[in-house]
Automatic annotation (TrEMBL), chains A, B:
The lineage of its organism: Bacteria, Pseudomonadati, Bacteroidota, Sphingobacteriia, Sphingobacteriales. This is 3-isopropylmalate dehydrogenase. It comes from Mucilaginibacter gotjawali. PROSITE patterns: IDH_IMDH. Its EC number is 1.1.1.85. Its cofactor is Mn(2+); Mg(2+). One of its GO terms (cellular component) is cytosol. The record marks Y142, K187 as: Important for catalysis.
Length: 352, 352
């Protein structure tokens, strides 16, 4: 198989971790006889510094022309504390989501048995948790009209029927191949957008009678994820609710540094660790490269249909963890101190 | 002291639990020589059935004329699964918040040592957690203009400067009397409303140099609450984010049935358990009356300035828990089966 992959490292620890995702791809290419070619492009704070734009045209063009994108992270504290900044790194990420039509963000929340104790949740609550989130990614209050005057500010939360329908279909298709349960999360007791959301999901549900559907209010979902995460199989939700719930769930899994996500639409797929740019540890060889490596596994599986190759990556990670190796973020009091590795050493261990 | 209290039981388990809140108020009146008078009014599904409106005019008038309101819960599954319903129980709650100008919802997340094990979180993560949420309650996407066409639906997320300022002041005043740390939660990297929010909070912060301010994105806050709930003191946030985060936090505390909230503004205060109408257990003498009783403690403290009386209620609850008594929702495998009580028996125990 011949594939062209665009690497967008972005800000903070982006470059350090993406290096290892790319190295694993190269190794998979060699081992299984695929020809992976690579290019690079700028996004986020780095892109603003170099070109003035968080998403240079060249980046979007290269993205469209590639078969898949491996992304690192964007963000910089400099903009966060300046509410009046007009240009922000995050606009790059939002721009590429919109530009490539990446309307579905898939985030598998999976547990590594070896890391059960890394969570704040009790192991007996956690054990057996396996959730696949479908977060809508190109609509909602993220992209609705924004207004600002001296005394007010507003963002329009808006959904179109087709936007809800296309992601609902993707989520139901996935549920069918998994636990056959789908929980759609909204706030239909208050929001008009949620009432449309619920209406459309109810319609799509009829086409999947083999999948059990539940509708849950977002406040309740935020609770249930803590109380009994095992009860969820596929969770389908809107952009803003998905932003909050997937991050909550990743922390529940206790392994933020171990989780990857795939953003897909009708064109090129986009794969990224769920952790952010973490400037506080950038350049210190401390970041956990496993989420970037797992992003590559998602890419192989989802964009290229290479399940065996994807599995070999997950097995390599499992083995590394079983041998007791950890990066700082997933180490606990039982970890053998000599087995706490930096980014580079952990990347190499998995490659072996 | 002479005070007139309006009791609005609402739907589901509302009536059962509110009975005990009221009984405790009566007892406090007798013991401390206060004259509490009571009236009742309808809201929610019950009100719709009786009058066609979720918030009859009479209820709002009585509410305005009272010194404080003790509320139960509203909601009914009948409306939840019908996205086209025009009249909904929740409109009663939203209407009274707006009608009374209850712009600040205070939700203390406190732990009862006896119940440390009731949470899904590990006791060592939880121990020492003590958070006071300030959720804005009369603005945001809850009250902005809603539109609906065949193919789209929208809700306007909107904030005015004065709305952010007045709740920020309340939160800073409270922080000053507590741990002197305030975390303001927003999504300023994406939302214009959040950028206004952050701007105003930054301005108000200058007037409270003795309080340490942190700004956090809502997705990160949803994570940090699971990862390290102890790190929060006062949390200040908008209506929608507050809805999600306070419910998440209450589950973290593991004692949903034990938490109360106060909604305040410039007039009459409104006190309620944070649990909902729980129709599945309504009328079965199973509901936990402690949150309603704790709502009364909040009322005494916040609306009437009766701290000693409030403390005597908390002490009575502490004592009941220390003696091993539990309702079903807060019982665990260590609970002596003979000490698992129904609503009535638990209410009586606390009265004793
Ligand atoms: C960086 C930010 C714009 C982004 C979002 O809110 O979508 C991030 O939090 C995410 O979840 O990918
Ligand atoms: C019932 C509903 C409208 C309400 C809200 O979303 O505010 C409830 O969830 C709450 O938190 O009080």
């Amino acid at each position: 198989m011949k594939k062209h992959i665009l690497v967008i490292s972005g800000d903070g620890i982006g470059a350090e971790v993406t290096t290892w995702g790319k190295a694993v791809l190269e190794q998979i290419g060699k081992t299984y006889g695929h020809e992976f070619t690579f290019d690079e492009a700028l996004m986020g704070h780095e892109a603003i510094e170099a070109t003035g734009s968080p998403l240079p045209d060249e980046t979007l063009e290269k993205a469209k022309a590639s078969d898949a994108i491996l992304f690192g992270a964007v963000g910089h504290a400099k903009y966060d504390n300046d509410p009046s900044a007009k240009v922000r790194p995050e606009q790059g990420l939002l721009g590429i989501r919109k530009g490539l039509g990446l309307y579905a963000n898939l985030r598998p929340i999976m547990l590594f048995d070896e890391l059960l104790n890394a969570s704040s949740l009790k192991p007996e609550i956690l054990k057996g948790t396996n959730i696949l989130f479908f977060r809508e990614l190109t609509g909602d209050v993220y992209f609705g009209e924004k207004k600002r005057s001296a005394d007010t500010a507003s963002d329009l939360m808006i959904y179109h029927r087709y936007e809800v329908e296309r992601i609902a279909i993707k989520a139901y298709e996935a549920a069918r191949l998994r636990g056959k349960r789908l929980c759609s999360v909204d706030k239909a007791n208050v929001l008009e957008t949620s009432r449309l959301w619920r209406e459309v999901v109810q319609e799509v549900a009829k086409r999947y009678p083999d999948v059990e559907t539940e509708h849950m209010f977002v406040d309740n979902a935020a609770m249930q994820l803590v109380k009994n995460p095992k009860k969820f199989d596929v969770v389908l939700t809107a952009n803003l609710f998905g932003d909050i719930l997937t991050d909550e769930a990743s922390q529940i899994a206790g392994s933020m540094g171990m989780l990857a996500s795939a953003s897909i639409g009708d064109g090129t797929g986009f794969f990224e660790p769920i952790h952010g740019s973490a400037h506080d540890i950038a350049g210190q060889d401390k970041a956990n490269p496993l989420a970037s490596i797992l992003s590559v596994a998602l890419m192989l599986e989802i964009s290229f249909g290479l399940s065996e190759e994807a599995k070999s990556i997950k097995d390599a990670i499992d083995k590394t963890l079983k041998e007791g190796y950890r990066t700082g973020d997933i180490a606990d009091s039982n970890t053998d101190k000599s087995k706490i590795l930096g980014t580079t050493a952990m990347g190499k261990k998995v490659l072996e």
